[in-house]
Amino acid sequence: MSVQCVRYCKVLSIKDDTDSDLIQVRIEPEDNGIKNDKKLPYAYPLLPKAFHVKPKVGEGVLVFVAIADDANSQRYYIGPVISQDQKLWYDDYQYAPTFMRGHEYDADVAISGEKECNGILPNDNDICVRGRKNAEMQITDDDVRIKSGVKLVEESNKYEIKFNEYDPAYIKIKYHPGGLIKKEDVKENRRNIGDQKGYFTGYGTGNENFGNKNEIKQVNSTVTLVADKINLLQNNSEENSFVTTDRENLIDDDELKRAITEAYKLPYGEKLVDILTVFINAFVKHTHRFSMLPPVEANGIPELNEKKAILLDNKELLSDTVRIN
User: Fold this and answer.
1) Distance CA 154, CA 216 (A)
2) What is the pTM for the complete model shown?
3) Whole-angstrom Cα distance, residue 294 to residue 182?
4) Tens of pLDDT along 99-118?
5) Parent domain of 190
6) CB distance 60 to 81 below 8 Å
7) Alpha-carbon gap, residue 279 to 304, rounded angstroms
8) Confidence of residue 58 (pLDDT cuts 50, 70, 90)
9) Could you give the angle at the alpha carbon of 214 between the alpha carbons of 210 and 219, nearest 5°?
């Protein structure tokens, strides 16, 4: 008679005093003589410690028994067993083995065919580290995506997920084979604008008139950071310091709120160049009727006052999105 060395088991406990990710399960017939679940042998994780995923109580795992039909044999586990992508948050032991032979329950409808879920699933060639709810890291052929909130799990029903079209946060690090902006693009734009340095001067920003050429060479790699609010915080800033070493969250929500309201706003580069150019022009060209009298209201002074009213008085120079300390 053959004896199974691999068993599908329900997780009964994930508590252990060694921080080794040990769990307790019951296997049959080896554990039939153990009445108290707390006395069950521990199973050790097969995943290396560099990767952490711990099953929840009530989920299923695959348990490997070193020597079949021996209650004292070392046990190893891998899991949790998750049947489908919409069940990453939790997949009950009873329903998880949907695709195992002889299982009585049918799988749910695949979410890949639902419009609201387009963009959530990794492609077959991708490597992905996925969180239980709203966060994951995805590695494609040419980019790395660290994502939070791109996939949204409904709080009232965590088996309902959808793509977030409104306020995701992510970092995308991408290499562009052949170039995102190529040499021929640079040359063509240089011919159109008349720049003689071999670079090109932006895409219709109008900043050529302000002496800011926005010189861009061929672009082969990009890093893009997207979020509602972006905080660039240094530890122990002498100007404005925030607690960035919270043991639980690194920076907790209360400190984040304080950073969003108290850290310094970054200026918009083009607008800063705009007002500085007007200021320099007015400073160089202004005249006085007599010594100690105010400048004559001409030669750039009205334009400077206009820029000051818009950019400084109305605070349109500063970004409320990106802050530093």
Assistant:
1) 43
2) 0.81
3) 52
4) 777 666 777 788 888 888 89
5) 176-227
6) yes
7) 6
8) very high
9) 170
